[in-house]
């Protein structure tokens, strides 16, 4: 029984090997009216032009600079506290470690 299955498998492999290849060269994923080399060259040019355009726009935008404003007024509601805490600034138990 096993030899019959092996012989059948070998026969089907031999039949596939003798079969002629398809005339189109395989399954085409795109339309047959377009040339693949033309499409590839077109998209390479589009990509390069897009990268060059983005680079030039970024360089132009960054070369303009940006405005600098004066310091904001000292609003009273901000109430910034510059006084040390009553318990000290470095009173934590881990504050003696050099990495903390």
UniProtKB/TrEMBL annotation:
<dbReference type="InterPro" id="IPR036418">
    <property type="entry name" value="Cyt_c_oxidase_su6a_sf"/>
</dbReference>
<keyword id="KW-0809">Transit peptide</keyword>
<comment type="similarity">
    <text>Belongs to the cytochrome c oxidase subunit 6A family.</text>
</comment>
<feature type="region of interest" description="Disordered">
    <location>
        <begin position="1"/>
        <end position="33"/>
    </location>
</feature>
<dbReference type="GO" id="GO:0006123">
    <property type="term" value="P:mitochondrial electron transport, cytochrome c to oxygen"/>
</dbReference>
<feature type="compositionally biased region" description="Low complexity">
    <location>
        <begin position="1"/>
        <end position="28"/>
    </location>
</feature>
<protein>
    <recommendedName>
        <fullName>Cytochrome c oxidase subunit 6a, mitochondrial</fullName>
    </recommendedName>
</protein>
<dbReference type="Pfam" id="PF02046">
    <property type="entry name" value="COX6A"/>
</dbReference>
<keyword id="KW-0496">Mitochondrion</keyword>
<dbReference type="GO" id="GO:0005743">
    <property type="term" value="C:mitochondrial inner membrane"/>
</dbReference>
<dbReference type="GO" id="GO:0030234">
    <property type="term" value="F:enzyme regulator activity"/>
</dbReference>
<dbReference type="InterPro" id="IPR001349">
    <property type="entry name" value="Cyt_c_oxidase_su6a"/>
</dbReference>
<keyword id="KW-0999">Mitochondrion inner membrane</keyword>
<keyword id="KW-0472">Membrane</keyword>
């Amino acid at each position: 029984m096993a030899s019959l299955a092996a012989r059948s498998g070998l026969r089907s492999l031999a039949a596939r090997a003798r079969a002629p290849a398809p005339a189109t060269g395989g399954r085409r994923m795109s339309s047959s009216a377009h040339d693949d080399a033309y499409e590839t060259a077109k998209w390479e040019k589009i990509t390069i032009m897009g990268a060059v355009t983005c680079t030039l726009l970024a360089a132009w935008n960054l070369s303009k600079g940006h405005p600098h404003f004066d310091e904001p007024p000292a609003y009273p509601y901000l109430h910034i506290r510059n006084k040390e805490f009553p318990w000290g600034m470095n009173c934590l138990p881990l504050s003696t470690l050099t990495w903390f």
